[in-house]
Amino acid sequence: MNTAMILRKHWSQQVKALFPTLHGHQQNTLAFLVQGIVMSGSTVLQRIAETLGTEEVSLAKMPSIERRLARFVANPRIDVEEIWEQFVRQLLTFWKGKPMSFILDCTPFRSDATIVYLGLLVHSRVLPVAWAVMPAQEKWEEGQWSIVARLLDLVQRCVGPEADCTLLADRGLSGLALVKLCQDRGWHYLLRISHEHTFRRQTRQGWSTWSPVSSLVQQPGQHWYGPAMLWQESSLQTQISACWTPGHEEGWVLISDRPASKARQNECAKRMRVEATFQDTKSRGWDLEASLITEKERLHRLLLGLFVAIWWVSHLAASCIHHGQRTRFDRADRRDKSMFRLGRLWLLFILKHARDSSWGGANLTHSLPFRKRHQQWIFSLRF
User: Fold this and answer.
1) Per-residue pLDDT tens for 218-229?
2) How many separate helices (H) and strands (E) can be counted in the chain?
3) Which of 38, 87, 149, 370 has the greatest CB tally within 10 Å of its CB?
4) CATH architecture entry for 82-281
5) Which residue range or ranges hold the Transposase IS4-like domain (predicted)?
């Protein structure tokens, strides 16, 4: 039995434990799909089947492998929401009692759909914890804020109402509706807002007149931090952190329920990491748009496999760096390889050298994404 097939055996055991309500055959196929996505670096079923066949993860013929994966993606009996919540509930237990930052964003999928995405910020990566697939050209059956509320509720069921959670979002989603969703759940919020919004600041004499927030920072190097009243139509008392960092095209205006300071700007800068995650799913990474899947429910099931793969490859990339092997795959003077590419290359290296005792860091135990300790699943990114 080759190392890729041994890895499949161990990985299948993890999938069975993490997705207990799936039928045994569905568990095996999901494990098969995720391993194929990671090893092939693609979400195109034909390419996944080719990799699983050529690497002898399966001895079946490639057309048979592809048909098996296609049946899983097309299977209406697979309740993605239910099984994903079981998966996330087990993993987020690891962060209970710790502050957690979640990033909300939307990304287009070709011209067919929009993916509403909620991710957990861990080190340099945004790991998917909830999502919804909505049509891009048709009217949504469910309102945008109803969708966001559903995603936040899924996370809250997993971490509990007492968890210390902060939601970050960019200008396209920021507004009073999102603030209220956070307040209703006891979450902190840190949102970047557009410059055309109006505010008035608190002074010793009371509140100033209404002005556009663009007046707070009008040139590089300026900053302003303090309490303010926002939105003349439906007022919100909040904290504004405005700063125009030299070298940036424009200033940032941030609102939060926590005290205004430069620390809010540093926190919000982490939101940009979600862009790297989206780029990894597209042409520079798993090339989701080349999958040719347009039907919403099928895309939903393919994303199930892809998002588990993102957790796995993030662990692999961190493991590669932790074991001092980054320069084996990337330049030493700068970082050219994304976390996606680095993690995948490290796994392929492990599969090739796992039986070679001279490579102490290259073994299958380092490649599996999750560990169980004291009846609890553990996920960590050790750099």
Assistant:
1) 899 999 999 999
2) 13, 13
3) 38
4) Alpha-Beta Complex (3.90)
5) 151-312
pLDDT top residue among 374 and 345 = 345
Measured CA distances, 119 to 126, 168, 278, 377 (Å): 5, 10, 11, 19
Over residues 141-168, the pLDDT tens digits come to 678 899 999 999 999 999 988 999 999 9
Cβ 250 vs Cβ 220: under 8 Å? no
Closest Cα partner for 277 from 134, 128, 84, 108? Answer: 128
At residue 112, the pLDDT reads 75
CB atoms within 10 A of CB 145: 14
Q: Show the 3-state SS of 32-83.
A: HHHHHHHHHCCCCHHHHHHHHHHCCCCCCCHHHHHHHHHHHHHCCCCCHHHH
Tokens of 226: 């303090």
AA letter at 316? L
Is the Cβ–Cβ distance between 142 and 310 less than 8 Å?
A: no
